[in-house]
Amino acid sequence: MATASEGHVSEEKFCKLLPKVELHAHLNGSISNETMTKLLARKAHLPQDQQPDTQALQQWTDKVEKGKDVNLVSFQMFKLNHQIVDDTEAVAMVAKDVVREFAEDGVRYLELRSTPRDVPQTGMTKRSYIETVLKAIQQCQEEGVDIIVRFILAIDRRNSLEAAAETIQLAEEYRAKSGGIVVGVDLSGDPMVGDARQFIPLLQQARNAGLRLALHIAERCHQGVESLALLNIPTDRIGHGTFLHRVEGSQELVAATELHNIPLELCQTANHISKSVPSYDQHHFKYWYDKGHPCVFCTDDKGVFHTTLSKEYHLAMMTFDLSRKQLWQLSERSIDFIFADDDVKQTLRKHWTNERSKLQL
Ligand code: IMP
Ligand code: ZN
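# inosinic acid complex -> structure
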C-alpha cells in the first residue's frame, strides 16, 4: 500500500491521504452498505409485512449507481433508514461504524449531526438517543480511532415548534453535560415543507446560550425570504446554500453571506443526485470559490448518496481543475470553521503541518 511519503500517488490516493475536516454529515444518511447489511439482519426474524422495504433500497442503489430514472427521493430513504434504526442498539452500531469509516477515509475532525428521535415501541427516547451517540463517540476515542468528533443536534423542519424547543433545550443541557462534545444545532429536513422562520426565536436562544448554528439554507429555489432571515440571525455556517446566488433577491442574500463571512458546507454528489444543481460543473462551489469566500467540502449523507469525503475532494479536483495545493488549502482552511474550541483547532493545525511534508506539497 502506498504511504503519504511515497509522493507519486494517484489523485484518488492523494485525496484519501489528505487530512480532512467533515462538517456536514447526517448520522442516518451516512450508513454504509456494510452497516446496512448488519442492520437488516437484525430485522430478519420479523414477519414479512413488518420487514423493511429492501426493494426500495435496491431501487435507490440502482438510481445512484447506475443512473436509472427511479421515482424515489432521498427523503424516502431517510424514512426507511429511520424504520431500520429504531432502537439504541442500532443507533450505537451506526454511530460507531460511521465514525470509524470517516476516520478510515482520512477525516481527522468530524461534526456529526442527527435529529434526536423517540420510538415508544422499542423504549428509545430522545435522551437515550443522544446519550447513545455520545457514548459511541467516547468508545471510538477510547479504542484509539484517529479522529476528533463533535455532535450537533438537528431540528427537523417538518416537526412542530414544540419538538424544536425540546431539541434546543436538550442541546443546551447536553452541551454542559457532554464536556463540550455537543457543539451546535442544525436545521434540516425536507426543504419543500414548512417555513423555517418560525424557528428563528429558538435558534437565537440557542446561539445566545453558546451553541453554534449550522443551518440548511436555500437548498431549493423558492426559499429566498426564509433564507435571508436565517442568514441574518446570523447563522454560523450554511448547509448547501445552493440557490443563494440564483433566486429573486439574490443580491441581498449574497451580500448578507459576505457581510457575516458565513462559510458554506458544500456537498456536490448530494446536490447532483437530488437534482438541485443541473451538473457537476455548474455546482455553486465555483461561484463562491472564485470570490474567495470560505467553502468546505462535505458529504451530507455518504450512505444514501454513495460517496466519501475523499471522493468529494477528487470530484472537485477533476471538475474545477484544482491542484493538489489548492485542495490542501481548502482542507486546512476548513479548520477555521469548526465549532470545537481553539485548543482543538491548534491540535488540528499541528497535525496538518506534520502531514504536509509527507504529501510533498
Ligand atoms: P438523522 O437526523 O441522523 O436521522 O439523519 C437523517 C435526517 O437528516 C433526514 O431525515 C433529514 O431530516 C436530514 N437530512 C439529511 N440530508 C438532508 C438534506 O440534504 N437536506 C435536508 N435535510 C437533510
Ligand atoms: Zn444536509
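# post-check
The chain has a mean pLDDT of 96.
The chain has 15 helices and eight strands.
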